[in-house]
């Protein structure tokens, strides 16, 4: 029987990242997935990144993960969202050629040292007592592994809905994972149902592009990977059109025939990614919604109409598509559909994404109630690292709310659970001024270097940048200038008598690096890329200094780990209600305990005292 340190089930976005991370950590890793051609498949929109999501991709890349590099290779239109706002809320996004994305992801996975790819359907998890020890495939093959990472996405008892029609499926064209779902059922895990949907795909040759507005990408593309220096794929524009009163009338008239509105689906859908039926009902006063027509690849004919996902029957889909300007003769290549699937309440996981009820079994991706490729990949990274650590007898690695969006997401999921598919937003991060997409490497690459999971190329690139930033900072803080001197150089600052360093001057939003070079000409020698980064760091320096106390406190609490078997009952002074809530939530550290509903500073002090005795 084959034996691995880490076995990952599923080659979607979570699985690819988990397997690659574990292999980079030096663990002998297997990736078992239904089909090789399914690795890196984008089930829905052909795009990576966006607000909050782009932060996650940069963080994955900072840990030398794969999503950012592959997205850069496949990117056919790059746009930095919120470009006019501050760097903290800017989100890199790229439309991706889905064929290139799949091809590149497969190549990256297949060429990774320590990583074996196995094609097959996992139908059983092997357990010894409460410990996962491997899997069984549909053909009877048994594979032994020290740890198992489950990343089956929307495949667990997936049901595809198109109007009144429904059938079993993991996504269009793939069969659902039913036997594995039944096996998981037997563990008594808290399972629920969620749903998501996708729009019909259109034939580019049947769209009247000549009458539509165009959206071009940025001239200076913001890549995802800190390693990428240039574009790989040809860049294209996408088209813009709108739904109209006629479209809404068709949808309203046929609402009862929609799987979602006809009562065929129980699962809850993503509020922030509503179907066109949802939009028409929820925003009844709006007579039009924007639709982006995004090419799915450079070589194929498929177009993804972003903004009109649906579970209406095919004849209604045809009617409403044809009511839209430019789509009057559009041919549907694949109908839109909704999918309903099982997910596991993520409160059953600890901060390493390991199930608490069993050991050596990790869960990552859509199976944990999230939605989106980036959320899935980020969880895959966490689970892959921790599965490798467990197999290698190393300590678990925790991402915190104060160092990453990844930490914010893991904490949200494992302490609060989900009531609808969870997606990332910048508003979820309380320390977003320091958790920027542009400084993900400064925040996380040192940790990845310590874990020994980065390439030598990445390490030397990072160290050179870190040294250049440090030298640049020294140069910017060596001298102070009077307001008179500064205004003499053409910079308008408050005449408050304060002497300021060039770094402090950069904190004024309208002061550019070129301005401060007039004050101190030797600063011109700093490399352009480093100038820009120092400018971003300086912009938020004052706020971050003020936040530092909160960050220090939360980091101290995050470092105060709560052992998995910690007994809450019997802590004198802790109410029965709070004891029950803590027993249910099983926080991994004191910071998580502080966020349990009803927690008070006094109760936290009692808990801390007990933890100290426990040591
Ligand atoms: P997936 O990408 O689903 O990958 C799961 C993998 O597991 C597959 O490779 C599969 O072959 C494999 N697998 C499953 N069972 C087994 C088994 N028993 N043995 C071996 N291998 C197995 N996200 C958004 O952000 N916005 C959207 O609007 C959106 N709409 C969507 C619409 C649809 C119809 C679908 C299907 C998904 C949509 N998504 C959307 C979600 C997005 O596709 C997922 O969030 C993302 O793909 C999840 O990644 P994952 O790795 O968890 O799972």
Automatic annotation (TrEMBL):
One of its GO terms (biological process) is tRNA methylation. GO terms for molecular function: flavin adenine dinucleotide binding. SMART domains: GIDA_assoc_3. Residues 538-609 form the tRNA uridine 5-carboxymethylaminomethyl modification enzyme C-terminal subdomain domain. Its cofactor is FAD. Pfam families: GIDA (PF01134), GIDA_C_1st (PF21680), SAM_GIDA_C (PF13932). FAD binds at residues 10-15, 122, 177, 366. NAD(+) binds at residues 269-283. One of its GO terms (cellular component) is cytosol. NAD-binding protein involved in the addition of a carboxymethylaminomethyl (cmnm) group at the wobble position (U34) of certain tRNAs, forming tRNA-cmnm(5)s(2)U34. Belongs to the MnmG family. This is tRNA uridine 5-carboxymethylaminomethyl modification enzyme MnmG. It comes from Pseudosulfitobacter pseudonitzschiae. The gene is mnmG.
């Amino acid at each position: 029987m084959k034996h691995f340190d880490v076995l990952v089930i599923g080659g979607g976005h979570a699985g690819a990242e988990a397997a690659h991370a574990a292999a980079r950590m030096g663990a002998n890793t297997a990736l078992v997935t239904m089909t090789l051609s399914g690795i890196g498949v984008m089930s829905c929109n052909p795009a990576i990144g966006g607000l909050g999501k782009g932060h996650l991709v940069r963080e994955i890349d900072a840990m030398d993960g794969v999503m950012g590099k592959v997205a850069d290779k496949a990117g056919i239109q790059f746009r930095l969202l919120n470009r006019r706002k501050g760097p903290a809320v800017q989100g890199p996004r790229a439309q991706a050629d889905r064929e290139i994305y799949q091809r590149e992801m497969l190549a990256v996975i297949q060429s990774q040292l320590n990583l074996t790819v196995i094609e097959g359907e996992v139908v059983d998890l092997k357990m010894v007592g409460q410990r996962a020890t491997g899997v069984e495939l549909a053909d009877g093959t048994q594979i032994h592994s020290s740890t198992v990472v489950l990343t089956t996405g929307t495949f667990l008892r997936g049901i595809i809905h198109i109007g009144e029609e429904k059938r079993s499926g993991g996504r269009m064209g793939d069969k659902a994972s039913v036997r594995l779902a039944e096996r998981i059922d037997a563990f008594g895990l808290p399972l629920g149902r969620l749903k998501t949907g996708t729009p019909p795909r259109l034939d580019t040759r049947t769209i009247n592009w000549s009458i539509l507005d165009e959206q071009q990408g940025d001239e200076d593309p913001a890549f995802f990977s800190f390693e990428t220096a240039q574009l790989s794929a040809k860049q294209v524009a996408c088209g813009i059109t709108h739904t109209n009163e006629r479209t809404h009338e068709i949808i309203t008239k046929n609402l009862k025939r929609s799987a979602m509105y006809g009562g065929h689906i129980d699962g809850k859908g993503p509020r922030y990614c509503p179907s066109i039926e949802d939009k028409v009902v929820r925003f009844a006063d709006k007579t039009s919604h924007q639709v982006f027509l995004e090419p799915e690849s450079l070589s194929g004919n498929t177009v993804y109409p972003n903004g009109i996902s649906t579970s209406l029957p095919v004849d209604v889909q045809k009617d409403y598509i044809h009511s839209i300007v430019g789509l009057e003769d559009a041919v549907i290549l694949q109908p839109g559909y909704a999918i309903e699937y099982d997910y596991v309440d993520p409160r059953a996981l600890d901060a390493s994404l390991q199930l608490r009820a069993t050991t050596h079994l990790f869960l990552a991706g859509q199976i944990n109630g999230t939605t989106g490729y980036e959320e899935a990949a980020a969880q895959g990274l966490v689970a892959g690292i921790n599965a490798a650590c467990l197999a290698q007898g190393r300590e678990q690695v925790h991402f915190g709310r104060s160092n990453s969006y990844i930490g914010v997401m893991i904490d949200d999921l494992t302490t609060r659970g989900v009531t609808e598919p969870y997606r990332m937003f910048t508003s979820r991060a309380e320390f977003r001024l320091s958790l920027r997409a542009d400084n993900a490497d400064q925040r996380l690459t040192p940790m990845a270097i310590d874990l020994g999971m980065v390439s030598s190329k990445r390490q030397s690139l990072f160290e050179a940048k870190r040294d250049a930033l440090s030298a640049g900072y020294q140069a910017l803080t060596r001298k102070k200038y009077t307001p008179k001197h500064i205004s003499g150089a053409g910079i308008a600052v408050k005449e408050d008598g304060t002497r300021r360093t060039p770094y402090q001057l950069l904190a004024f939003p309208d002061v550019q690096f070129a301005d401060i070079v007039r004050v101190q000409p030797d600063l011109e020698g700093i490399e352009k890329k480093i100038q820009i980064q120092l400018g971003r760091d300086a912009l938020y320096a004052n706020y971050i200094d003020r936040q530092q106390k909160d960050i220090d406190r939360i980091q101290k609490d995050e470092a105060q780990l709560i052992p998995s078997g910690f007994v809450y009952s019997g802590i004198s002074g802790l109410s029965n209600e709070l004891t029950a809530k803590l027993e249910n939530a099983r926080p991994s550290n004191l910071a998580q305990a502080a966020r349990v509903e009803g927690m008070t500073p006094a109760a936290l002090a009692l808990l801390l005292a007990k933890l100290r005795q426990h040591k």
